[in-house]
Each structure stands twice: as C-alpha cells, then as structure tokens.
Amino acid sequence: MYFPDNLLKYSEGDLAKLFIEKTMEKIRKFTKVDAVIVGAGPAGLTAAWFLALNKLNVLVLEKNLGIGGGIRGGAMLLPIALIEEGEAVEIARSAGIRLYSGLNGVYVADPTEAMIKIATKALEAGASIWPGVYVEDLVTSGRGDELRVRGVLVNWTPIIEAEWHVDPLFIEAKAVIDATGHEGSVIRLLVKRHPELKLKVPGMSSGNVWVAEREVVEKTGMVVPGLYVAGMSVAELYNLNRMGPILGGMLVSGRKVAMQIIDDLGKR
Ligand code: 48F
Questions:
Q1: Strands, DSSP E only, in the chain?
Q2: Is the shortest distance between the CB of 134 and ligand 1 below 6 Å?
Q3: Domains of the chain, with CATH numbers?
Q4: Ligand 1 contact via 185 beta carbon (within 6 Å)
C-alpha cells in the first residue's frame, strides 16, 4: 500500500474544495504587489530573484506554461548557452549553475539547468511565478510627463488566443518590468496607449555580440515612472544589436533592474 487507508475518507469533492480554497489564498496576494515582472525568461527570473532577496513582494507573469523563455532553445535548438566572465559568471555561480570550460573567459552552460536554477532561487527567496497569464494592458495614472505605470491588466493566455473579448483583471504594482524579450510586449503597449509620449519601439538591430551584451546592460532601467525594461526588450526599445545564445547580459540586466527598483522604492 503506497498510501495510508485514512486518505480514503476524502472524496474528490473534498480535494477540489482544498484546491480552490488554497488557490484563492495564494492568488489573493497577487492583487497588490511591489513588483510585477512580465516574462519568465532569464532577465525576468534573475530580476525576480534579486528583488525577492531584498524582501520585495514579487510576482512573475508568464504567458506560457513553462519558464525559461527563448534561451531554452539554445541556438537553432542546439542546447547550449554561453556565459561570459565577469558579473554574469558571478551570478551564474551563485545560482549553482554548472559552468563548463569553453574559450578562455567564455563558459558553457545548459540553458534548461540555468533557467531551473534561477527560477528555484527566485521561488526560494519568496517570489511567485504565475504561468498561463497574459499581460494585455497597463494600469496608469496621468498622461505625458505626469504618466505613471501602476500595474497591469491580465487575462488567461487561452482567452487571448481564442480572441474572445473577456475583460481582464487588475494587478497593482509599484514597479512593472518588461522582461518580454524580443516581443517587447509591454513597451509596445505603452507606445500604443500613450501616443503623447512620442516614444517608438524600432526593434533590435543586427548581430554584434559584445557590443550587444554591454549595451543591453547599460540601457537597462526605467522607461517612465513605474515601468522598467530588462533583457532583450531593452534591445527592442533602443534598436541595439542582438547577441544570439549568450546568456550573460540577460542575467546582469535582470540583476541591474532589480537593484534600481530597490533603490527607487527606498528598500535597500
Ligand atoms: O524571450 P525571453 O527569454 O527574454 P529575455 O529574458 O531573454 C532573451 C534570451 O532568452 C534570448 C536572447 C539572448 O540570449 O536573445 O532570446 O530578455 O523571455 C521572455 C518571456 O516573456 C514572455 C514570453 O513567453 C517569454 O517566456 N512574454 C512575452 N510577452 C508576454 C509574456 C506577455 N504579454 N505576458 C506574459 N508573458
């Protein structure tokens, strides 16, 4: 007998009731948070980890069922990611990611392992990850110079894919991070909803690995009060070069945006 007989007293209905009660307990905490991170790729997960380590209440929203974003496919589905020496290796090592030797100063990692380990760090630090949730709009106040992002509007991904018009629900946040990679979903929403800003999202530029790695990190940060950008959506916003299957800049960008938010919210 692999489970004790006393479990037989619970009916299917009892299990469903437990499921619903515990879900409500869990998701009611998601309605007002310190930071919402849109996208569970390397930049978003790293940001979640460092924000949660600093005791912020963090929610990662991911439209797909799985975490890890684009890097899971390595390059051309060849399951390798490269990580360069410096801050990126320091972050990878503290997540416990195994690094294999490559070139002098360029390490090799398994992208699935890297993403699982960073997600585990984020969860253990107290962040929550909610898969299957699509961020379809922003909550804001003011316009133009007075604009402030105060949260997001969310829906289930299958509702978006079915193109049903079902109203979304609010999530309030002191900071929202666009970590949606090449999609740049949140910054594109900002441009569409707020033409008065005269902002453009030109999309990324062509490949140039080291320039791309440096500039993505340099330009990571606040776009308008309450809205921040990290990872490849930085390249989409500022027309920076792309870098391909090198993971380092994503980790460093995620940590940088977390530290900026911690400072901006006075939580350091
Ligand atoms: O694409 P993604 O991995 O972004 P990233 O963290 O890292 C980029 C690298 O993976 C790689 C690269 C550099 O090495 O070029 O591609 O910048 O993760 C973005 C995540 O955001 C989700 C999407 O499903 C993916 O998992 N996402 C995008 N739009 C939405 C979203 C949305 N509107 N709502 C929720 N999730």
A1: 32-38, 58-62, 81-84, 100-103, 106-109, 128-131, 133-141, 148-156, 169-178, 221-224, 227-229
A2: yes
A3: 32-73+111-264 (3.50.50.60)
A4: yes
